[in-house]
């Protein structure tokens, strides 16, 4: 089982609709969870971080975390063509000061005008 | 401006010819790491460093070396490159855990280095 799993997509969503991206992780000791957006050939850009169960909203983005189910999701409301990108889920485990950030393979999202 | 700078950005080299990809950050971050990104495999950590002279293997360290002689620099060394090391490489840095404060766990990525080994 992969440490961090995402559907690779592509996920196509009409402009203005809600895009829902999902991620599961295997290490129950995971403490921090991140969503990165990556345009083709560019470096990842942090969109959201979440550390405790529940929802965290930032503008059009909402991250949801359920540690019992080992599940984290990202909702993008009022999707725009500029949201078309690959979204990477990342999970961090910290042990004795050492950190490991593990990425999923990413979900390719296309917003259809 | 906060930056992680990688060089070269693009390189085509031949099998066995040693090369170094440099990485430098101007944010006084303790933590630096190298990732490679391949289609279908995502971002995989090669090596990381918690501070000067402290380095450790990530998930895919074979064929790579690193050094951390200064806080700002973390070069990636391919002693004898092979075609399976053709990839997109990212350097990243972040503050030490206890120093993150309101900035949280922001990790800053370099722009990437496209490496082709023929």
Please tally the helical runs of chain B, counting DSSP H or I stretches of 4 or more residues. Answer: 0
Query: Distance between the terminal alpha carbons of chain A, to the nearest Å?
Result: 36 Å
Please report the number of helical segments of chain A.
Answer: 0
The assigned structural class of chain A equals mainly beta
Order of helices and strands of chain B: EEEEEEEEEEE
How do the SSEs of chain A run, as a string of H and E? EEEEEEEEEEE
**Main pleated-sheet profile of chain A:** 6 strands, mixed
Count of beta strands of chain A:
11
How would you describe the shape of chain A? Answer: globular
Overall pLDDT score of chain B: 90
Rg over alpha carbons of chain A: 14 Å
Q: Which consecutive residue ranges of chain B, at least 5 long each, have pLDDT under 50?
A: none
Average pLDDT rating of chain A: 91
Query: How much of the sequence of chain A is in beta strands?
Result: over 45%
Structural class of chain B: mainly beta
Q: What distance separates the N and C termini of chain B?
A: 36 Å
Q: Which parts of chain A are unreliable, with pLDDT below 50 for 5 consecutive residues or more?
A: none
